[in-house]
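Q: How would the C-alpha cells look for this protein?
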Amino acid sequence: MSYLYFLLLLLPILAFSGWASAKVSSTYSAFDKVGNRSCMTGYDAAVRLMRNRGVTDISVNRVNGRLTDHYDPTKKKVNLSMSTYGSSSVASVAVAAHEVGHVMQKQEGYIPYKIRKALVPITNVGSRLALPLIIVGILLDIFWVTAPRPFGEWLVYISIAMYGLSSLFMLVTLPVEFNASRRAKKMLVEDGILAQDEVAGASKVLSAAALTYVASLCVSLVYFLRFVIIAFSFLQNDK
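A: Here is the predicted structure in C-alpha cell form.
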C-alpha cells in the first residue's frame, strides 16, 4: 500500500474519529440538561440497579473528570465521573446504568466480557484508543523507514502484532459495550428510573459513546493492514 493510498484511507477514518468524540460530548451535554422524572442521580441509579439484582459487594464512587465513568472489577467499584455521580439527568442515569451493565456481565459470566478482560485488564481505555493508535502508528511509520533494514523489518512485525492485538481487543469490545447498553436501557425501565418515553434520550447517549469504540477499531484495522502489506513487500523483495 503506497503512503498516498494509505492516507486516502486513513483521513476519512480520522475525520470519523474526531466526529465521534464530538458527538459523545454534544449528546451527553444535551441530555445532561434534561432531568429524569424519577429525580434519581447517577449514584442513586447505580445503587438501586445493583441492589435490586442482589449485588451488594460493589461500591459506587465518584472520580474526577467528565465521562471518565468505568467499572473496576478488581477493586469492586463502579466509578462515576463528576458529571454523572450527582446529576439527575437522563444522560447521567444512562451512563451509570451502562456501568452496572458491565457489573452484571461479570456476575453472569458473559463470555465476551471475560475475553476482553483477559486481553486487557484495564477495560475503560477502549473509547480513548483512537488518538494514541494514530500517534504510535505515525512514529512507527517513520522509524521503520529510517532504521537499518533488519531493525526496520522487526519494527514492522512488532507493529503487526500490536495492531493485530488492538484490533482483536476492539472487536471483542464492541459486543461487550452494545450488550451493556442494552442491559442498561432494560434495567432503567424495569426499575422505574426512566419512563419509556425517556429511554430514547438515554439510547442516544449510549449510541454516541459506542461510536468511539467503532472509530478505534477502524484506526487499528487500517494500520494493521498497512503493516501487513509492508511485510509482504519484504517477502517479495527477498525472493
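The chain has a mean pLDDT of 88.

Residues 41 and 88 are 4 Å apart (CA to CA).

Upvote if useful.
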